[in-house]
Amino acid sequence: MSNDLHLKLSCLNHESFLTVSEIIHLAAKHKSIPLKVSNQDDGIYESGIMGTFPLDKYLVGKFTNAGFTYGPSQKSPDNGMIYLCGNSHQTGDSWDSDVFAWKKTEPAPQLTVTFQLHTHDRHRGVFIQPHFWGNCDGGPTHKPTIDKSVMAVGNAFRSHPIIGDMHHNPYLIVHWNDIGLGGIRNIRTLFSELFGRNEFVLELANSRVSPFKPHPQKDSEIYVIENDQPYLFSHWQSQLEEYKTKLI
Prior knowledge:
There is one protein chain. The chain is α+β, with helices and mostly antiparallel strands. It contains seven helices and twelve strands. The chain has helices spanning 3-10, 20-30, 57-65, 143-156, 187-195, 199-205, 229-247; strands at 17-18, 35-39, 44-47, 51-54, 69-71, 81-85, 99-103, 110-120, 125-132, 172-175, 185-186, 223-224. The chain starts with a helix and ends with a helix. It folds into two domains: 3-21 and 183-247, no CATH class; 32-179, no CATH class.
């Protein structure tokens, strides 16, 4: 191994790599979002309640301006429920809920908001997605209705530190550059860039004798800072050459 290559490999250390958890926590800190729950299986991290909004005349008015109606069901007015309906006019065989529903006996209907955060490589950042609930008995699953509800609450509470930024767009993105991580890419993407569709390398990487560390599948969601990506390329190429040498 040449001295130059050895020097390049020695530049890779724990600071070269970032986990999804570390990135999400940096983005949450940037937006002052306290994280409460994480689902390690799908990489989604969730905040605690970040706002409570009473469903008073003021908020109902904002929802009305966004195309919602508030009142009993027109089809079943005596079912004991009151609805905030998005009037989605869906067509097709399937139908997603477009309503928030409260019991008529609920003295103080309200909505609460939490945020879900996850990395989004195409947008090069962390996606922040609001989730409304509160003391309702059911909520919408229809995405356009959810988006409209976010913007309605954003319009009603523009002073809210996060929701207020969503009055014109139902989602926020904390870009890599916003948290000092411009240019980071994950292991899977970098491995694909280096070796492309080289069938020999891909089969080797998927085999039990794979020499590649970090591994393009097992470590696929680990990110590498931009300045150290060339060192990782050299690292993988060195591992591949050492493997080939052992075969001779």
